[in-house]
């Protein structure tokens, strides 16, 4: 008798152990986990992080999990919610193109909360994280781009499934219980893209992480779900406008062969803005640097990009820092002025900067069919042309910096982590923390990595 999707996924979760990961997989997992921890630290100090933390902490519920920048002794659900929202608050976190979204903010935030609660090791955390990312990548390959283009925020609507799987692994659920947890998670899939550029977008990630924990907890206590919750009529795939309904036989062949961690691999963000801006930002910064262009020399900027970018970048004239992260025009204006796009640029002061406001009307953002990615997107290509000094300076970028094919160096990753921690952690604490998370597979207890992330009295 053919297994269902839930049963195939549950068997993969149950039978996969750390030995299934090769060295490249482990290094990739450690790299992305470390990056997401830095993003969570930075996000904990934002208004998004503060509001969600305050509401979650006031709701009570005790446990053994850490809310980064908040309390220890929180419930796993509360920690997953707050840390997931904080991790995504600045849109500085990683991308998995097969998912069409951000894998770590959901999977890691849930996994970390449960791993701490269960007394898991660093290797246990890596194993569960890799399993969760693998599942959401393979599901993403089946359902996208139609699922995403229909309006679903795949980070949450698919991410919740990986979060539940990872938590179930750490809780050592039986194969049957894992299948139930996945079906429960399928009914908690949510997140609409119209909320991009608002506080609700990062809430999608936190809520999906929380729902993943909740699904596994319910299943552990005997809660049930349909075994055909994914592929059945009125199930997850058809309801959420999937390109294809996931096939159990196909999943059996694909899971872990190869691992999503290394194929296509996870993109680390160099800029704290939507990934749809990154190729264009690389191009703009390269032009400015190569030709030493001054702002007063720039007559206009034309940006041709993948049509996909127009479906994501919703704010040609942003009025807030959050909207600015989803504005190609604003990002290019900042890069033209500063030669960079950093955390400090995405606030109301920069939105209202007279230089930005003067440049915005002279920036065009156009879709171009030959820059459209394949079905499983692997970047958002762009070509930028700057008109200055009576000349046209052009640069095309197909793969952004931070992509596994154009990776950030360890020094670059360290600098990003330190930027995220600036003003929140002492410099020596942040430097040690980066080094410690880089050796996650050697850590027996997670407390030594998490204690510096709790407020020190």
Automatic annotation (TrEMBL):
Residues 271-431 form the MmgE/PrpD C-terminal domain. Pfam families: MmgE_PrpD_C (PF19305), MmgE_PrpD_N (PF03972). InterPro entries: MmgE/PrpD_sf (IPR036148), MmgE/PrpD_sf_1 (IPR042183), MmgE/PrpD_sf_2 (IPR042188), MmgE_PrpD (IPR005656), MmgE_PrpD_C (IPR045337), MmgE_PrpD_N (IPR045336). One of its GO terms (molecular function) is lyase activity. Residues 8-240 form the MmgE/PrpD N-terminal domain. It comes from the Bacteria. Gene3D superfamilies: 2-methylcitrate dehydratase PrpD. Belongs to the PrpD family. PANTHER family: 2-METHYLCITRATE DEHYDRATASE (PTHR16943:SF8), 2-METHYLCITRATE DEHYDRATASE-RELATED (PTHR16943). This is MmgE/PrpD family protein. The lineage of its organism: Bacteria, Pseudomonadati, Pseudomonadota, Betaproteobacteria, Burkholderiales.
